[in-house]
Amino acid sequence: MGLIIPIRDAMFAAKTLAEWRVLLGDIEGVWAPVLTPEETLADEQVRANDYLRPITLDNGETFEIVPSPIQFDEVAPDLRRAPDHGEHGDDILRELGYTDEQLIDFKIAGAIL
User: Fold this and answer.
1) Which of 44, 51, 80, 99 has its CA 20 to 30 A from that of 25?
2) Distance between CA atoms of 109 and 113, rounded to whole angstroms?
3) Residue 93 neighbours by CB under 8 Å, 6+ apart
4) What is the residue extent of each domain of the chain?
5) Which helix (H) or strand (E) holds 70?
6) What digits encode the pLDDT tens for the residues 17-57?
7) Under 8 Å CB-to-CB from 50, ≥6 apart: which residues?
8) Closest CA to 54 of 70, 65, 45
9) Dihedral sign of CA atoms 94, 100, 101, 106 in order
10) Residue 82: what pLDDT?
11) Which of 35, 54, 56 is nearest to 44 (CA)?
């Protein structure tokens, strides 16, 4: 380990994060503390920039997730759960022209769910 690392660590440890926020608040440039997941969830900038959005599952459970950064016309996409494995398979195969009888045969053969 280099000589500068222990000196730097001691320097930063000598003050609280609140004190460093005041000291570094007016500097030119970007800085930010490394936050724990819990601190990130409570961070005022995370909240102010809508970096977390609520999602509700089919069972009624609600929690927050990080939404996709992609937006169209400055509107974030609706949040919804990902489909279950094979959930839309029958619909897709019907759109491709397969009949219900063919789908049953595929299922009996183990080719699809």
Assistant:
1) 51
2) 10
3) 102, 103, 106, 112
4) 4-81, 84-113
5) none
6) 999 999 998 899 888 888 898 898 888 888 888 888 888 88
7) 67, 76
8) 65
9) positive
10) 80
11) 35
- Is the sign of the CA dihedral 26, 32, 38, 42 positive or negative? positive
How confident is the model at residue 1, as a pLDDT?
A: 59
Tokens 């570094």, located at residue: 24
Residues 104 and 32: their CA atoms lie apart, in Å, by 57
> What does the block give as tokens for 48?
């102010």
Q: How far is 15 from 99, CA to CA, in rounded Å?
A: 71
DSSP 51: -
Terminal Cα-to-Cα distance of the chain (whole angstroms): 56
Distance between CA atoms of residues 74 and 72, nearest Å:
5
Q: Is the pTM of this model over 0.70?
A: no
